[in-house]
Prior knowledge:
By secondary structure, the protein is an alpha/beta fold. The protein has helices spanning about 5-15, 45-55, 70-80, 90-95, 140-150, 160-170, 180-190, 190-195, 220-240, 240-250, and strands at about 25-30, 60-65, 85, 95-115, 130-135, 155, 175-180, 200, 205-215. The protein has 10 helices and 9 strands.
Amino acid sequence: MTKLSSLLCIIFFLTFPTQAKVKESLRFASGEFPPYLSNDLKYNGLYAKILNDIFSDTDFKIELDFFPWNRSLFLLKTGEYEVSPMWIQNKKRDEDFYFSVPITFNEKVLFHLKASGFHWDSYEDLKKYKIALTKNYTYGNEIDKLAEERSANLIIVPEDRVKFKMLIEGRIQAFPMDLEAGYYLAKKYLSKKEFKQITHHKKPVLMEGMKLMFSKKMDEQKRKKAIKLVEQKMISLKKNGTIDKYFWKLRNGSFFQ
Length: 257
């Protein structure tokens, strides 16, 4: 090769850099669950921020679309979407989906009015209270069993925020919900006077890992690669303190600033 041709080759590679590898899309279907997931929040919420951290600098790129939770579940089951964030694994869901390691943990507590005198020690105690549950949510084996028995004291509602107004109006006496999400929604949808009436029982009804749920209709090799990647990245994010930092910022009100 002559000096001239060598020079031209160098100029070519400097002028036309190698094309970046095209990333493979992961289509996420999600419902609204602020402050963890929302189309109206910075980063699309805390959980979405963690997902971006997981999949940044990888062969995957996230395409996150928001629907009602029921619709997200249907889209995942039919394979139109591949992944849905923030689900609790149970036997019923294992029939149609695969799960990742936990991304965060869901502490569900019972919200009630301060003046109500609400208290519980056992699940048998809950039968005497009128309680609202959100459709298609799981609250642990004991409460899910009560829901399957169609207890007269259980009311099924379409979304979480409805339960706060029902509580204030005296139509229910308690409802289970994630601790962080509960107070976030209470601040958003209740007046200051109403918010001061709300509290929660210290005993959790559920402490479970919130996982990514993968469609069984998804390409198997792609799914296994994504699940393995999530496991590896979560080890790193926990070890370097990223997850703890995000939750600390959420609780002191600085995460979305």
